[in-house]
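User: Need the bound-state model for zinc ion:
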Amino acid sequence: MHKTPFRLTILGSSGAMPTSKRLTSAQLLKHSNRLFLLDCSEGTQILMKRLKIPLMKINHIFISHLHGDHYLGLPGLLFTMHLLGRNNELNIYSPPGLKKIIEIQFDICNLKTSYEITFHEIEQGGSVIYNDPTIKIETIEMSHSIPTYGFLFSEKPLERNIKKKYVDKYDIPVDQILQIKAGSSYTTPKGEVLANEELTITPPQPRSYAFCSDTSYTEKFIDQINGVDMIYHEATFMKDFAETAKEKHHSTTTEAATIALKAGAKKLLVGHYSARYDNNTLKHYLKEARDIFPNTLLAEEGKVFEVK
Ligand SMILES: [Zn+2]
Ligand SMILES: [Zn+2]
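Assistant: Bound-state model below.
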């Protein structure tokens, strides 16, 4: 059983423009005590407040691309963080251009934010843009009308847990405990060798989440996300709009499901719905995806999904 929280909250599920019921693209991923924001659309900060998400604790924001439905809530959020007197550095990852957009807003009103913003420009897929002892984040190259990236969150393998009864029985010294946790066997003072599998408990498998933002159907990142526990893949259209999807560099329900299937994913979330689909139509939309990939769920504002 995993003890570390790894949890996704959907903050926006609509494609291109918001509707009276849906906001455009944004998600919050919590891993351990860290909060990562994926895209930041109009209304993201309002919904975060409603859901009691502590927005000042977000230190890393990932913007998939610079179409308005994926970042127009960012200036507002940055202003709010300033008004609340934020001190901590904020890191923003996006394709080139965002720094210029944000700086012009601050320059025109003569504002110097209370906190530092570091912009990290993404130039290619497959690069590690964040790394800490518990999780690694890589870019995934999408296939869209402008440079667009998804993000792959991969947990680091956990250390093996040593069984307490052995520590007590043999009074194992600390330096040896560390080696056992890393996989070594242990030789007792009497020369008895205890295998690592005997001494330790296998930790749970590392988990992963792939956020695949706007893209037309492409298999180019399938190997990179192979075996992912949960994938979000846009599905702007139902399958009868396959031609439109292709023209607009978006995907359909069946295409998203095919990617999840080919990648060996365990769970698929679909979203970025065209505004033409109401909640009733989404039942048929979901069925189309489930016909190919049964463990598919709809992204919906406020809905929480555990990565497992
Ligand atoms: Zn979009
Ligand atoms: Zn787009």
